[in-house]
Amino acid sequence: MSMLARRAALRAIPRARGYANTTAELAKTQWAEKQVALKTHAAETANLWRRISLFVCIPAIGVCGLWVRNVEAEHSAHQKHLQAEHGGHLPEPPAYEYLNRRASGGFPWGQNTLFFNPRVNKDMSQQ
């Protein structure tokens, strides 16, 4: 067949426009499949982190809490021992010059910090 006849035959037959990769129906189903896969993955990930929280984090917090309680109990026993040795009072800490230095003078409310506790902290106003 000659080239002109073939071109005339191709032009006479109406054609629908084709797409290179997919049709619109296929694109919709692929999008829906991706959304389902995304929701499934999100549910699996949420379950994973829920299990990690329940079976790893909560027991770890409990173990750390018990450890801190034991350390603080030892510290309290040591403080009571020191008070018993020194007549009911804790011994004065050493007056090292580098302890409790104020770079720009005192605080607006005095020499002691905002969270000053006279049972634990050294009173800086008596220096």
Automatic annotation (TrEMBL):
Stored InterPro entries: Cyt_c_oxidase_su6a, Cyt_c_oxidase_su6a_sf
GO CC entries: mitochondrial inner membrane
Places the protein is found: Mitochondrion inner membrane
A single GO BP: mitochondrial electron transport, cytochrome c to oxygen
UniProt keyword annotations, A-Z: Membrane, Mitochondrion, Mitochondrion inner membrane, Transit peptide
MF terms (GO), sorted A to Z: enzyme regulator activity
Statement: the UniProt record of this protein carries the keyword Mitochondrion: yes
Domain of life: Eukaryota
Coiled-coil parts of chain: none
Keyword Membrane found: yes
Family under the similarity heading: Belongs to the cytochrome c oxidase subunit 6A family.
Name of the protein in its database record: Mitochondrial cytochrome c oxidase subunit VIa
